[in-house]
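Bit of a strange request maybe. I'm writing a small parser for structure token strings and I need a real example to test against, not something I typed by hand. Could someone generate the tokens for this chain?
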Amino acid sequence: MIGAIKTLSLFSGAGGLDLGFHQAGFEIVACVEIEEAYCKTLRANVGGNRALGPDVEIFCQDVNAFDPSRFVDAGIECIVGGPPCQTFSAAGRRSGGVIGTGDARGRLFERYCEILALVQPKVFVFENVYGLPGANGGGPWREMLRAFSELGYKLKAEVVDAADYGVPQHRERLIMVGYREKDFIFPMPTCGPDSPSKAPLVTIREAVADLQSSDEPYHDGLGGMYGHLLPLVPEGLNYSFFTAEMGHPEPQFAWRSKFHDLLYKVDPDAPARTLKAQPGKFTGPFHWKNRHFTLEELRRLQSFPDDYEIVGRYSQIVGQIGNSVPPRLAYVIASSVRDQLLRSKKKLEFPVRPLGFSSTFRQRQRQRSRTFHEIAQRAIEQQYPKSRLANQAVEAIHETYFVVSEGHFKRIEKDTAPRKLAGEERSYKIVVRETKGKISIDFARRLASAEVRGSIRITGLSKYLGRIDRVDVVTSIGDYRDIFHIWVAIERALIKRSRFFSLIDIYGHYANRGDTVNIVCDFGLATTPSERLLEFVSNSSSCGTFMTKKHLSALVKCNLRELDEAITNLRDERFDVRTSRTHPIITGDKVIATYPFPLLSAKALVISKVEMLDSSAGQDNSESGYAQSYLPL
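Reply from user aminoacidic:
Good idea to test on real output. This should exercise your parser:
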């Protein structure tokens, strides 16, 4: 390739960034990527007339083990790549908090700098999540800028939306260009109101038009817990359509109780929201005809050409697509780097931003949010005519029932008290009464050798449950292993009187709650560290924020070894108390309790993420072609 710009790719992934640079005339001489599944994709696109060119060497290894010495004095003019983003991502914030450079993955920029120092390219292009500059007060970002600058590079960085550069997807990414000579100015958007041409953004319908069949019917939904709701979601909206904040007359989710991709159905006449690498059964984007997008359609939404081969099982391919830089965005950046810094041209392929230019994509994002409210109101008027919303008297429900249980999920409900129990079985009597605005529950362990009395009070429910604002529970239990079944009884009572599906749907996601529902518990347990920890985390005021183990151990009056044992015991009872052992994204001595109640769904994972990864290595966690949907831990 005459005049090609020799380029080394780090953290190559499935090659989206590399492909865009190759299309712009850069010669990718080598790719360094740790994941074998991604390396298989890279290899499949090397050779002959394939997408990445005939001669690309693939190093399937940790970048820390990669030896860059052979590329010293080899004519490398450019290095591209972005380290893994989990430690700075929005998903990371909801999963366990942003730890940034406190995690080994967050320090991979140091290896990036070491390779830059050895190879000495004229230019490098660093790509990462849009939230990196603001993570942890901006400290990690300032540290990175200092490290790159000390190598003698001038730096320009911008957060851009891929949709403004011809990708049929709103995907915000941080792009940083480092260079030694001349100056670099980011290119103007190629589409949208900020572009010189004012060309419209590329829509989903345009991108996948030839993959559609006019005979395809609208589908009924996905089945399962939430699948039947998908046909009711207006185009462009998600689960939030069913919230009180959107004006829904029969709310089924608390505001921001789920990831925003739950039940997200695209507006075909606009770009999609950001594709995800690990979607669940109910995670969008969904086709406007109420189905998952096909792999061919997903590739188009990420701007991969049809001849680019992505290798693996369904879930692996979806992951590679979702983790990729859109090649179209990469092409625009690469062409600008080429024309301005490496192969200077008087007439640039993409005009640069004028002095004082300010992108409007964030303002447009806020405008879309306002538009979604208007769309929701129109859909509600159609789906819920006034005759359906007429006030009707609701009969209060009073009931008494008995439960025989062995473990968490082997439960039998009875109308009469069991006469005897077998093995490890436990028996409970539950009495539920409803009066105006209040549910009262008496929960008693039967046939226990000792009884401890306690209480639970839940307030702030009326926003979501209408006629019910408060739940008062009187408990009489044998030990803390009975508490799981108390919460099953509470969830059962609330769901029976609403259109919600689970207790978490009512309470809200721990990381982004509206702070409407308040829970105060006193089970009368305070003898052991496990009991004291349970009493502490069973109050909503104690949940959703990080604290150090040292501080927590002082609060529950135990030493660190006893605290670790207590956390294990509570997780065995399905309380989601997280540490660095269960969630490697959490720093060493931090701990967080997510909810003041146990996870009641059998599908909600509470095992250690490390154990899960060890046990599932090499397995395909897919269900009918789609990744299983679990409560995100």
